[in-house]
Amino acid sequence: DAGVTQSPTHLIKTRGQQVTLRCSPISGHKSVSWYQQVLGQGPQFIFQYYEKEERGRGNFPDRFSARQFPNYSSELNVNALLLGDSALYLCAVGSGTTYETQYFGPGTRLLVL
Amino acid sequence: AQSVTQLDSQVPVFEEAPVELRCNYSSSVSVYLFWYVQYPNQGLQLLLKYLSGSTLVKGINGFEAEFNKSQTSFHLRKPSVHISDTAEYFCAVSSTSGTYKYIFGTGTRLKVLA
Questions:
Q1: Does the pLDDT value for residue A2 go beyond 60?
Q2: Minimal Cα–Cα distance from A15 to chain B, Å?
Q3: Which of A30, A104, B46, B82 has a CA between 20 and 30 Å from the CA of residue A73?
């Protein structure tokens, strides 16, 4: 995981609420990506940020938003939570350059009731 | 656009036996290829990667994979598995340019039996 940390580790919310997930990369890794992993499936790409700019977005609704801070940490926000948002949310960091390898954090497990 | 197919959702194998986990991909552009392992209730750990050069790639924990461009495959192998290899294995591709997002397969659950 190359020292990537995510908080919180677990979270329980109810439908309609909003949630903020956080990711702290290791030094020197300027890109951060967010993935959603629903139980029994592979991770699905949500966003990628590089140098605080959005570089890519997956097929997710506008309820999902993210930002990257000057220290390259990142937040993922999800508004108006639905039951289907229950998943493991993974943060991955990389150099942001060619031959990039992404290193994943342990994830935040979100349960929406 | 890229896609990844992992043909086997589950692979049971006895301890010390060899194993191969299959991965095929589709892409109209050049890609990088990766294998990740996920232990229960954990994030993803990089096993190995193919970026360029030799098509046989060696990774951690005795795993290796071979990139076959003509067959668009990147199968993962281990000559002798251990109980501790029981986990979910994901194959992933990313474009060599633009957004370096990963496209993952649906995963293969490797269960090593005693």
A1: no
A2: 24
A3: B46
SS3 of residue B83 by DSSP: helix
Report the DSSP pairing between strands B108-113 and B87-95. antiparallel
Contact: B105, A103; criterion CB under 8 Å: no
Confidence of residue B22 (pLDDT cuts 50, 70, 90): very high
* Partners of residue B107 in chain A, C-beta under 8 Å: 40-42
Give CA–CA dist A37/A77, Å, rounded. Answer: 16
Residue-averaged pLDDT of chain B: 92
Distance CA A27, CA B6 (A): 34
Dig out the tokens for B69 from the structure. Answer: 């461009």
Q: Are residues A79 and A63 in contact, defined by beta-carbon separation less than 8 angstroms?
A: yes
Count of A–B CB contacts within 8 Å? 64
